[in-house]
Amino acid sequence: MSDALYGYKMKTIDGGSRALADYRGKALLVVNTASQCGYTPQYAGLETLYETYGNRGFAVLAFPANNFGSQEPGTDEEIRKFCASNYKIQFDLFSKISVKGPDIHPLYRHLTTQPGFAGDITWNFNKFLIDANGKTVARFESGVEPLSPELTSKLEAILPAA
Fold first, then answer.
1. Pick from 17, 43, 23: which is nearest to 130 by CA?
2. Per the residue annotation, which of 37, 59, 132, 147 is the catalytic one?
3. What was the pLDDT predicted at 160?
């Protein structure tokens, strides 16, 4: 079991705090997001993914980041309102962090150094699929839509049967 992931405690978009250990036993899709990106409409697909698979032990963890083209300039409150009003987000949205560079958040340092999935985040909406034991099982670039067969087939393979 890969426990390293569960050691992080993250600030939520509303200023609270959430230990990633709370997600132990769930499959996760960890995504760096931005509100002013060409990929921003993927929020809708992420919400549908969450609504479709959430009752099978799946969670989406979204981490807004302003690392690419200043496409997430807003405050946490502005980001929260944008996601709620435009996409009716119900999945977990966290406080804005850095996902690349000298100020990279330790969670993303961990994710981007996993054997077989290592490498810098290349743009907004890069995605990491993590199994119920905390092990990274797939990584998807920005252009891979949340509801694409490429992603959903890998997700379904790690979830318990419906």
1. 23
2. 37
3. 86
